[in-house]
Q: What sequence folds into this?
């Protein structure tokens, strides 16, 4: 085979391979929307985070407004401290409510932000005061059985 | 003790020693190839030529297999997920299975069968026809001239082929679930994009395929260089390349997966 043809084929092969890697990164892994915009960091203390993971989305009204960047356990309050990176385009009032929710039946867990009515906005390093823990099935069943038992005893 | 038992124990011992001896020889040869690589990388035309034979000629099998694997994954995933009303998660299932596991592993297995065996047969035949010895006579180092370019061509090709395999698989899954079955296109892509992570999934898959590339081509060039210079020897070496590299891929995959995805 002629040298030029050989080079052409190999060049095409390398371009295809690199193109495939680009497609994987941008289209499949959605690298272009991850961590490229300006953001500010806030945190929240949760009694129980359930199965929340780092990089889980933070949503408000179903729109992704940020991502979980760190999860630590506080030995002072014995709570989970979840750090979130929020897109700086979205500002939330100081009394915003953060809950850990589950997407669908088999979906992942994420943080849902419900904006409050305060005029002061959350800024870099602030902590969300109002939080709601993840739903734990065992606790719910336990509570249901306890209520049922107290109903039965009332009669 | 009966003579037969003694001879069978001797046989086991002999085979074990031979295995260790071959492993040592292979490691020494691998280091020699790395040392001689600088010479052949300077003459990059040699690597380009091998890239054509190792990479470009493997494209067809990789593209077609990737497409069909993706289509089957899409179909099977849809069948299972629709029972739970989560058929939109099929995009995530297809992409994660391909990018994390099937892309690097199946592409490497196909690469070992298509390109690895060809490399072994070519080097083995060059040895059997005394072309390697002739090169030595002419003061041309056969490791730098024949082995190292093939090794580097394999190492460069493998991650590219694995990426092409994964992309074709995702396309196959899209074709079956979105175009043929009618799953919502927006949900298919958005679920996939929100669950596939660049660092954890794509980058680790890429690193895996690099390791597989090194393992398969190192085994292929060693088996070729070490094959007995007969027709039977070359055929045996070719078979050993496919068997050993397939086992090495699966073993390495387990070790790398344990390192990369542990605790996630």
A:
């Amino acid at each position: 085979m002629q040298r030029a043809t050989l080079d052409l084929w190999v060049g095409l092969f390398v371009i295809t391979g690199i193109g495939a890697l680009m497609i994987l990164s941008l289209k499949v892994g959605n690298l272009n929307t991850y961590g490229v915009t300006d953001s500010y960091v806030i945190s929240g203390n949760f009694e129980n985070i359930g199965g929340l993971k780092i990089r889980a989305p933070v949503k408000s009204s179903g729109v992704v407004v940020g991502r979980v960047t760190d999860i630590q356990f506080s030995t002072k309050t014995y709570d989970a401290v979840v750090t979130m990176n929020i897109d700086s385009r979205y500002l939330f009032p100081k009394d915003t409510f953060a809950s850990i929710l589950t997407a669908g039946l088999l979906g992942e867990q994420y943080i849902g932000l419900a904006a409050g009515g305060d005029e002061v906005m959350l800024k870099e390093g602030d902590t969300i005061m109002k939080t709601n823990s993840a739903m734990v099935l065992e606790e719910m069943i336990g509570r249901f059985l306890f209520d049922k038992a107290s109903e039965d005893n009332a009669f | 003790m009966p003579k037969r038992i003694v001879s069978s124990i001797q046989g086991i011992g002999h085979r074990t020693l031979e295995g260790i001896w071959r492993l040592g020889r292979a490691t020494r040869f691998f280091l020699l190839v790395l040392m001689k690589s600088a010479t052949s990388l300077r003459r990059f035309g040699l690597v380009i030529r091998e890239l054509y034979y190792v990479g470009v000629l493997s494209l067809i099998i990789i593209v077609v297999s990737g497409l069909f694997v993706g289509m089957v994954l899409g179909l099977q995933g849809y069948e299972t997920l629709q029972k739970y009303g989560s058929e939109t998660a099929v995009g995530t299932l297809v992409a994660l299975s391909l990018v994390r596991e099937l892309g690097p592993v199946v592409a490497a297995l196909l690469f070992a069968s298509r390109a690895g065996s060809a490399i072994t047969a070519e080097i083995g035949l060059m040895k059997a026809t005394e072309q390697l010895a002739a090169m030595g006579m002419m003061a041309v180092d056969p490791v730098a001239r024949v082995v190292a370019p093939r090794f580097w061509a394999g190492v460069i090709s493998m991650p590219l082929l694995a990426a092409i395999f994964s992309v074709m698989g995702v396309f196959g899954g899209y074709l079956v679930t979105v175009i043929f079955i009618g799953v919502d296109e927006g949900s298919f892509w958005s679920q996939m994009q929100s669950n596939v992570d660049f660092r954890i999934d794509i980058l680790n898959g890429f690193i895996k395929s690099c390791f597989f590339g090194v393992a398969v081509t190192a085994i292929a060039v060693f088996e070729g260089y070490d094959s007995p210079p007969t027709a039977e020897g070359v055929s045996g070496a070719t078979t050993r390349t496919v068997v050993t590299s397939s086992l090495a891929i699966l073993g390495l995959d387990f070790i790398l997966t344990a390192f990369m995805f542990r605790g996630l």
Summary: Helices of chain A lie at 3-28, 137-154. Chain A touches chain B at residues 1, 3, 6-7, 9-10, 12-14, 16-18, 20-21, 23-25, 27-31, 33-34, 53, 55, 57, 64, 104-108 (CB under 8 Å). Chain A has a mean pLDDT of 84. The beta strands of chain A are 39-46, 57-60, 63-73, 80-87, 97-102, 109-114, 127-128, 130-132.
